[in-house]
């Protein structure tokens, strides 16, 4: 077995075990209390799953994105917040692995440290005043002093698991005179930052991600700035990998909603053997909706992995950007649809929060999908790209 | 060709600075061209030079300077 194949098998087995034994029994409390899924994240740390994507020459597992996506799906099935925290952490790791550049020892050393310490990394990409456009920043890297020390201050409307992360990947303008779109990404440790919490966290769903707003201030060395423009990081890694891993979490949520609807129909069939069962027909319709979601999510993953392995230049092309934007829009609309139709199958026992067939949490969690980079904004971007792209 | 490219950028690039003050190799994104403006630049270039860019050329790096745009236009058959 190759290193990657062995790492993939181990990661998927660990994710399944943690999902079933730790994430599932705590999911209701995590949701009800809007608390961080600390036990599941601690268990993932113990399995070294936080460094799954770090290459083996830096001490990581060197697992594939396919396996990480599979882990997001397994965790999302049992506790969407756990799945989403894991997914978002892996996105930041993927950005560093792909874009740390040659001869940037700071990031190589940091990734080794991530392996040893199982550090949890969050991102600070949204900013108050930019209208939700991740491609623009107001906050900027200060002019470095003679020792190469610099700083930034950024107002973020949400920082997912901000109170629980060990480090943050933050987008800022390259310097005080840089244009809003001339961005870089800076990785700073919590101990280099002052994080002032803004407001509360009492949302409809994904309550365990604990994502209040923050004013983030950081002082850091210029080596902590990833050496390529954020536009490149975003196009080649952050955006497509986000859409792929998020959509695997959403597929996990929808799959569990389907499983609950199926369990409900089976129980009903046992009670009245041989009698017509209208819910059974609705379940069959639901399965076809779920299969559409599964097909799009799985195909997008394979396409990205093929491009990443064989033809990375194409990741920056507009046709490719359109493709992975489509994944996000389609999956974020289909997942809540599946959950809502699962509710239609289960009826009142699905609507109640304390039955084995409850799907209220699934529906609320899935409804966050269209807000994570608003679909309206993605449609606006796609509308512009469609004017010039050829084959899509 | 470069003067026509500059005229397209002047009309559609929405730069934060005057294009006349930029060298042919200067980074247009650093000069304030947004992704949205760059699409309008691409469309106007296709119209001005009566060509179509290939999908493989439709990416940020190809449109980052007057020089890189000139090279792309040469590749799709515009005489230098």
Describe the structure.
The complex is a heterodimer of chains A (392) and B (80). In chain A, helix 1 (3-33) packs parallel to helix 3, helix 3 (65-78) packs antiparallel against helix 4 (80-99) and helix 7 packs antiparallel against helix 8 (318-346). A three-stranded mixed beta sheet of chain A has the order 1-3-4, covered by helices on one side. Chain A has eleven helices and six strands. Chain A is globular and about 80 Å long. Chain A is 55% helix and 10% strand. The longest helix of chain A is centred in the middle third of the chain and has 42 residues, at 230-271. Chain A has three domains: 3-119, Butyryl-Coa Dehydrogenase, subunit A, domain 1; 122-224, Butyryl-CoA Dehydrogenase, subunit A, domain 2 (Beta Barrel), CATH 2.40.110; 230-386, Up-down Bundle (Butyryl-CoA Dehydrogenase, subunit A, domain 3), CATH 1.20.140. Chain A starts with a helix and ends in a 6-residue tail after the last helix. Chain B is mainly α and 80 residues long. Chain B is 45% helix and 0% strand. Chain B is built from three helices and no strands. The longest helix of chain B is centred in the middle third of the chain and has 15 residues, at 35-49. Classes of the chains: A mainly alpha (392), B mainly alpha (80). The interface between A and B is medium-sized, with 26 and 22 residues.
